[in-house]
Amino acid sequence: MALDVDGQATVRVSEAAAERPPVRKALPGGQLWLLLPALAFLAIFFAYPLFDVVLRSFRDGQGGFTVQNYEAFFSRAIYIRVLLLTIEIAFLTTVFSLIVGYPLAYVLANSGPTVRSFMMLCVMLPFMTSILVRTYGWMVILRPNGVINTVFAGLGLGEIQLIYNRSGLMIGMVYTMLPYMVLTLYSVMRGIDGRFVAVAQSLGAGRWSAFWRIYFPLSMPGVAGGSLLVFILAAGFYITPRLMGGDRDQMLASIIAYQVDVLLNFNFASAIAVILLVITLACFGLYARVVGLKQLLSSKV
Amino acid sequence: MTDKAHRNSYSRRSILGGLTAGAAVIAAPHVVRAQSGGRVLVRTSGGSYQDALQAGTWNSFTQKTGIEVVGVAANTGKLLAMVEAGSRELDIVEGNAVAILTLQAKGALQPLDVSRFEYTDPKDIGTVGPDFLSYASFAEALVYNTQAFPNEHPKDWKDFWDVSRFPGKRMLQDAKAIAPNLEFALLADGVPVDKLYPLDIDRAFAKLKQIKPHIVKFFDSGALGASLLAEKTAVLGSLWTNRVETLRKGGAPLAIEWNQAMRLTEYTAVLKNAPNRDAAMRLLDYSSSPEAQARTLPQIGLSPENKRAFEFIAKDVAETLPTFPAIASKGFEQDAGWWLKNRAQVATRWEEFLLG
Amino acid sequence: MSHIKDVTGGTPIVLESLWKTYANFVAVSGIDLSVGAGRFCTVLGPSGSGKTTTLMMIAGFVAPTRGRILVSGRDIAALPPQKRNLGVVFQNYALFPHLTVFDNVAFPLIMRRVPQAEIAQRVERMLETVELAGLGGRYPRELSGGQQQRVALARALVFEPRVLLMDEPLGALDKKLRSSLQIELKALQRRLDVTVIYVTHDQEEALTMADQIVVMQGGRIEQNGTPEDLYDRPATAFVAGFMGDTNLVRGVVMAADKDGTLRIDHPTGRRIIARASGFQAGDHVAASLRPECLSIESPDGPEEPENAWDGRIAAVTYLGDAIRYHVAVGENRPTLAETLVVKAARRGTEHRRFSEGDAVRVRWSRSDARVLPPTRADARILPPMQAGGH
Questions:
Q1: Cα A241 from Cα C282, distance rounded (Å)
Q2: How many CB atoms lie within 10 A of CB A248?
Q3: CA distance between the termini of chain C
Q4: What domains lie within chain B, and their CATH numbers?
Q5: In chain C, which end has fewer C-beta atoms inside a 10 angstrom radius, N or C?
Q6: Distance separating alpha carbons of residues C334 and C338, to the nearest angstrom
Q7: Transmembrane residues, as ranges (chain A) (predicted)?
Q8: What pLDDT score was predicted for residue A8?
């Protein structure tokens, strides 16, 4: 019996699938104009400035065409080092955000409404405060005679340097990036059917196996999306590294600001910005290849 | 002033200012008159700086002339971008030597006719260029914590480098703030003040390298530098003197050693394509007058460039200002021309120094 | 409780006064149930009847408040799900979307640390059994609904559990596919000799597959028996109503003869004569009249004979093989009006004998009226000695 029934079933399902796609289909031509305001907005506030930055990066002091800005960047070992440092810091930020954010998102996605609302508020709260205020808040906590070191001193422990070095930078960066990671993970985890874990357990999996073999792989789109988002944001980050990082934690964004604000060298700054952009896009591309863009862009399991 | 921490609160402040001004137009007759007299757009760095300008200079200017003054938020980078884009939303610019000289090189400044000044005698002004005036100055000085050094405190940059006699965490300026403290390093290394320029970059960086392990942070904004000292994260540092005055008023146990302090000058000019050029010239004239400078600059720890302004400043206040003769003689003036030529090179060296 | 004799080997399941209570809600109120080894037991009930909670307690996902769950005589109530060794098939299958069909089916074997080579063998064999051979490399989303259902089944059976729990496993499939899978599932269950507890709200499905049907309502077991028992001899009006269509006519017993003949009066003044034991005058009862047991004719004379009610056709539905008439009776007293549904088989080319508005007479024989106590009270009673637990 199976064959004919299955044959029918297959036909039916593919018919249903053929009927379903309207969601994915492009808007009917008659409604495309609805996109015009958004496109105009993007063109004016995104595409044009980007184009301008790219143009500037190929200009010399007199306004002529040159590649000297790029040459200046790549001929100096120091800028390559800052570039690598930027990637390193962004990468570490991503890893720590994931380590801290994953359990947080998990609890958030799998707890009752009261706990969830409260935790959501805690996660979102930093979003609603100025980044400068938050960063100064951390400085108060972490500085040598700050809250933590006062407690340490009270316990008879030595002073530890928590700020103006890599640990301070990581605390600040992870704290700032955590909401992005948690919310991305959360949106994916909310979509994971709780029965998958239940089924895994009924099939003989312990809690850990069920999590590791079933839940975690299903949450991968969130891990991928959150990591990419945090990496890109962290790579271009500016305020926290300057206020909480050490002298060795130099990042490209800070050099760009320096070139613009102090040295007034817009063309070189533009070249660095373009390089940062290309590196970011390259990371995105590499990532998309490894993880799969489709999975990256869809939070559905 | 290149004070970055001020910038953020700035736009909101100017919006509020705009609202207040709008309300005042309806309520107060003298502001109605002000509107009929036109207006001037002034680039400032905002914050308490702009508040002081408003209270000490702009209000009385508007009362005298009927010309309304509007502050425009812009840091140096944005200022240059505005000029480059041919923006006609700015009449008067003020900025450090690098910014002004860059604008001058671009031909963006309007030549001044100081003979038409009615409030200011150009002879009293520190520097009068063909198209700019010096306006105010501040200093980078050795600042120390009085609790950390109750008896003997470091008296010059040699002492600053002497970590055995004066132990404790230090801070110096990052290149990203204005410029790195190459001058102080050379002074510490024994270069006499009159032989400082042209700076020996290699020698300065070699000296900086010696002190680097004792630097808790190279601060890159006045706010951060102030907070490092105020919170005793560093007990010794170079900092902008106007900042120190604010901290001292707030009760921080800090003191300035004026010896070997470096003065930096802020300049002011009118843009060539200024939409309100005549009104701008009048404000430039008025702002440079002794009375206006005396009312405005000491409030925020800045030193007037009009030397007659000291006639209107109390002695105890004057003694905290870097161009007050008794103080000025202890220090020296930064050679902005040298920095204009060499800053790009120093910038790269600075990154290498930090990561080295 | 009807006790069903073990007809095959395998594992019997016994539930003993099983309770599940929440803060202010009793989901399952002390049920007892025994399912013989190798039997196919369908738990039937409307949503909220406690049937899924019961299944989840057996599977281990819901902890019983008290009571015992005996599988092969051993109480498993305190074991975590992964230690119970029961196959579970969920509604919508819950196939792991990131694993291939092969890996889905292999999952329980990997969890049991079965050697690699044996896993491959057993998975292939299982896929053959459910007629999915060759599809091991596909992902669940590449399969049709019916195929997904088979994968879920294969995954739940590959580790040879002695009990298979199924929660509305065919609910997502269309009717035609569902009925063929029902037969297939039943055959598979016979072949593998596994005890099945199958939860559904579809009485037709229950009748097709089950050896034993348990009807639940309000957290209690309303009736437990063979499909024939439940359909032909419903114990309560609820069961009668749930197992197929029926007309439940409520009334009061006016007289009960020694030979079991009852005279039941309907509030409209009409009368039902039926035979049943255990009732006495004054009892409130419901008479179940199956639509197919009623006949319809033109009223003949003004007097209604025994078990014949006059009325008017309110609606006619053409069913193909039959015609369904809705007959309104007691129109003279609208508040008490009753509608009887009559399902008349089509004879030959005959179409509609009556049309809307026609005056008709509905008749039935004494033996076709089944007298039942009214539905058990819905009240959910708290378990004795709340603190007990286990």
A1: 88
A2: 12
A3: 24
A4: 4-137+265-318 (3.40.190.10), 138-264+331-355 (3.40.190.10)
A5: N
A6: 9
A7: 32-51, 82-105, 117-134, 146-164, 170-189, 222-241, 262-288
A8: 35
Q: How many domains does chain A have?
A: 1
Q: Which two tokens stand for residue A133?
A: 């205020």
Q: Do C84 and A202 touch (CB under 8 A)?
A: yes
CB atoms C81 and A214 under 8 Å: no
Structure tokens at B41: 């757009």
**Taking 60 as the threshold, does the pLDDT of residue B12 lie above it?**
no
Please provide the distance, in angstroms rounded to a whole number, between the alpha carbons at the two ends of chain A: 32
Using the predicted structure, report yes or no on whether residue B237 has a pLDDT greater than 80.
yes
- Print the domain residue range for A86: 79-297
Domains of chain C with CATH codes? 13-237 (3.40.50.300), 246-372 (2.40.50.100)
CB C51 within 8 A of CB C59: no
Write the residue in A144, A146, A243 that is nearest to B224 by C-beta. A243
Residue A13 in any domain: the answer is: no
Q: Is C21 helix (H, G, I), strand (E, B) or coil?
A: strand
Q: What is the mean pLDDT of residues C241-261?
A: 86
Contacts of C185 in chain A (CB under 8 A): none
A-C interface: how many C-beta pairs under 8 angstroms?
93
The ipTM value here is 0.79
From the list C81, C147, C174, which residue is nearest A6 (CB)? C147
pLDDT of residue C334: 60
Mutate to test the interface with A, among C111, C174, C175 (most CBs of A within 10 A): C111
Amino acid code (one letter) for B54: Q
Residues of chain C numbered 130-169 and touching chain A (CB < 8 Å):
131, 144-147, 155-156, 159
* pLDDT at site B147: 95
Question: What CA–CA distances, in Å, run from C137 to A12, A208, C134, C155?
Answer: 22, 26, 8, 15
Does A have 3 or more CB contacts under 8 Å with C? yes
CATH number of residue A121's parent domain: 1.10.3720.10
Among A264, A267, A268, the strongest candidate for a mutation testing the B interface, having the largest count of B CBs within 10 A, is A264
Give the residue-averaged pLDDT of C220-242. 89
Q: Do the domain assignments include residue A22?
A: no
Following DSSP, what letter does each residue of B184-197 receive, concatenated? HHHHHTT--GGG-S
Pick B290 or C47 by higher pLDDT. B290
Q: Which of A211-225, B137-151, B181-195, C264-278 has the lowest mean pLDDT?
A: C264-278
Cβ distance of B355 and A248 shorter than 8 Å? yes
A136 domain residue, yes or no: yes
Closest chain C residue by Cα to residue A12: C144
